[in-house]
Amino acid sequence: MGTSSSSSMSPSSTLPYHTPAEIDEIHERLLTTFRAGTTQPLPYRRHQLLQLARLVQDNATALEDAVFKDLGKPRQEAAVAELGNVLNCCLYDADHLEEWTKPEKPQVAAWRSDWDTTVYRVPKGLVLVIGPWNYPYILTLGPFMGAIAAGCTCVVKGSELAPATAQLLADLFPKYLDPHAYAFVNGAVPETTHLLERRWDHIMFTGSSKTGRVIAAAAAKHVTPVTLELGGKSPVVIADDADIEIAAKRVLYGKLQNSGQLCVSPDHVYVPRNKQDAFIAALLKMYKTFWPNGPFHEGSRWGNIVNPAQHARLRSLLNRTKGEVVIGGYFDGDKRIAPTIVKNVKLDDALMEDELFGPILPIIAVDNLEEAIHLIGTQPAPLVIYAFTSDEVVKEKLLELTRSGTLCMNDTVTHLAVYEMPFGGQGDSGHGTWNSKYTFDAFTHLRSYVDIPLALEPKLSDRYPPYTDEKYHAMTATLRTKIPDA
Fold first, then answer.
1. Is the peptide bond before 466 cis (omega within 30 degrees of 0)?
2. In CATH, which of 3.90.70.10, 3.40.228.10, 2.120.10.30, 3.40.605.10 is domain 20-230+436-445?
3. In 3D, which of 480, 468, 435 has the Cα closest to residue 206?
4. Reduced DSSP (H G I as helix, E B as strand, rest coil) percent helix, strand, coil of the chain, to 5
5. What's the pLDDT tens digit per position in 202-243?
């Protein structure tokens, strides 16, 4: 397939965008392939999954270089958090195709036992994956591999904000994958808008809530199901019994990933008022351990903010905060912002208006766990809540009294590596889930099947007109069933 030399170009690069005509041709080509049944056999699906794994393995260095060029993302972060997970998931999915696709024979009432009742797991059809710029491998190729496993054909839309990565993936796709079934499309808002005007059988989007609403509205015109992974302000709760030093280390580790540009980045921290100083002291200790020569030193491998507009937004937030900057708060041109810790932040502070999506960590002092839970409840449900505690009572309270896509205890961001469980938001942070088997489920339709024997005709005679009182009595026996006491 490849990309064309279109007149529509990214303002920040020479990334070629697909034209509307090319998008229409790709859509028709992939739709034709699905209707032909090409992608349904399990050997085909397994081969394509293994080819995606080879794409990652063969080109790991080039993929790391591309995301470094786009974001300044350290090689270790790209390899561990993204490429390694994609490769492992491909192998895991390939090994479980027979198990996942096996038809189910549900247990039915005895009088329907000879109807051959079966639930088949069938591919939905032609699906669209719209990936983000911040984690362009795991959050784009991850959903894509679920489409392969489900037996769908799939268009993957890359992010124009990560042009080197998008171009590389567009070049690699047709070299490793069946171009009649899968295509990588590049473009910005006009091209995405044109994609959304086509009819899809499922759309998966990862990105902002604002754009997610646009995607959902466009999908609704065709009654297309969507999976939205949208992020939000993911809080951290430090309980009274928490190991302060380990908590500080793990919170700061989560915050430094991709310079805070991660949908599950620790957004802000609720800490007991009497432990705030100790927690901040532990953060400062870890800060100096992580960046002994400062984050902008050549050996620190500190990444960039994606573009000047986002850099300016974060600078504005720091200018408007009424909290106290403990460390950081300085800049390197319009590309980098030093990791910044801000204490004595109130809930109405500028830093609490929206998801930060940057290397700023507000600290909010609370009197107790109940206050932290109350404050969390006043905000939209986040993608994840983090909590540091070994107290089972505290864990139970957080499970019962808070809402989030995930509840992660005693670490940050690492739950993303658990591809055996679903990942997704709730409310404003999105809906639907994905991750390995759960992505397969998202792109799979549960198709019910029954075969009512012709030999049953004598037993079905009471259902036919003319209706009589005798037939009514015989057909409504269920309404006279004795209901047991509670």
1. yes
2. 3.40.605.10
3. 435
4. 45, 15, 35
5. 999 999 999 999 999 999 999 999 999 998 999 999 999 999
* Active-site pick, 22, 263, 355, 408: 263
Q: Alpha-carbon distance 203 to 305, whole Å?
A: 28
Query: Is residue 90 flagged as an active site residue?
Result: no
**How far is residue 410 from each of residues 76, 178, 243, 429, 449, measured CA to CA in Å?**
23, 42, 9, 22, 45
Q: Give the DSSP per-residue string, 114-140.
A: TS--EEEEEE--EEEEE--SSSTTHHH
Q: Where are the domains of the chain?
A: 20-230+436-445, 235-424
Residue 191: active-site member: no
What does pTM read for this prediction? 0.93
Per annotation, catalytic residue among 229, 392, 408, 457:
229
- Tokens for 291, please give them: 């960046």
Going by CATH, does the domain composed of 235-424 fall within 3.40.50.2300?
no
Distance CA 405, CA 423 (A): 7
* C-alpha to C-alpha distance for 319 and 214, rounded to whole angstroms: 31
Distance CA(433)–CA(204), nearest Å, equals: 10
Helix/strand/coil for 192: helix
Residue 96, burial from CB neighbour count under 10 angstroms (0-12, 13-18, 19+): middle
- Summarize pLDDT for 389-412 with one digit per residue, the tens: 999 999 999 999 999 999 999 999
